[in-house]
Amino acid sequence: MITDGKLNEECAVFGVSLTIPEAAGVTYNGLLSLQHRGQEGAGIAAIQDSKILYHKDIGLVSEVFTNDELQKLTGCKVAVGHTRYSTTGSNTKENVGPFITEYLTGRIATAHNGNITNASEIRGELLKHGLQFDATSDSEVISSLIAYCITIYTGEQNILLGVTRAAGSLKGAFSLIIASSENKLIAVRDPNGYRPLCIGQNKTGMCIASESCALDACGFEFVRDVLPGEIIIIENGKITHQGVKLNEKEEFCGLCIFEYVYFARPDSIIDGLSVYKARYNMGAVLAEEYPVDADVVCGVPDSGLQAAYGYSAKSGIPLVPAFVKNRYIGRSFIYPTQTQRDSAVKLKLNPLSASISGKRIVLVDDSIVRGTTSEKIVKSLRNAGAKEVHMRISSPPFRHTCHYGTDIDSEENLIANKMTLDEICRMIGADSLGYISIKGLKKACTQCNLPFCTACFTGNGIHTRAKKDIFETPDEASKNK
What CATH number labels 274-326+333-458? Predict the structure, then answer.
């Protein structure tokens, strides 16, 4: 499922509760700022007179939402949006969020970032209770489960209690934003804090987003991150409930450390740590762990650039650009022949021979997954006249699958499971190769407020275990409140 030699992350979520009827337009701008987290589909749901208006489709945000489509969502004060990268379920319109689900007295629209490891089990139980599904995404399961718990499990139309009961039964990673037909905006972050979620505020209301860069782009001031296990309710542009509710976990795992390595935008601040600063630190640590005699330091665009700055500053080796990036190749660009596919890297990254010809290069990148992309990049530098290429990687070797929203679906796809460090170095054609250590990576991210999940490097992931039976009868549920 790894598509281009890089890892991909499942989704972005964005939601607003405003005092002015501009929620859909603000959400559109927020999704544009979060497009890097998912390019397969996009959707917006907005609340209007206790009804939910929505539009979603496959494609980039700017492709899905024409002016006409956005006009259909105008006049709303509450909205939630979603951009998708599929790690669970195929890439179809039906699997794009937000998911709209009815309950006894209303409807909800749910946007989800992460991956639910017990989704199949929950889906099976909900099917037994008469619920139907139109998609294959675990996000639809979440929305259906929340609606079920609001009306059946709680025995009353209490959204907070229903969301708490539903979220407490989920295993895996979930940052959720839910818009209800009661004009409530609800944010939930799983007890392990795997995926980021933050709160913003301005004079028109409040905003919830996967990353703070979206708050900046839409004119909201960063307030704070949503805490692991926390549920927040916003009405009429103000927080009416906040506090940790999902605290029934056996062990705490932490934020996916790859948010800092690659997923997030460098201008975001996640759980107290600047993404740019984290990547800069990674480069500095790499210079300490893997020094080398070289003439220049170069970064692979885009997430390798900040680590290259850090490597250059720590080592004293000058930083120069190695590539010119073509920013006009869309996601749908195709390569009809194998020869074209083999040379595709030059269509996006063309070596800048004036900077690198005759030079010994330290080349900094964020990861090596299958090795095919790294091999092509190193070869292109040599063809442009590079004398030596010393590869430095700002993440440790990937050796394990991820169950929490990253598309490492099979260890067979991971080159670090097949080859030693020396073998990988020879395969990609580099003169030397160095990966940052797990200890060094954590050192680079010490200012983060949370511990980290490093399961894809170590194999020591922790699943959040549910302790309640959410499918007990309404009478049993009432007794157990």
Answer: 3.40.50.2020
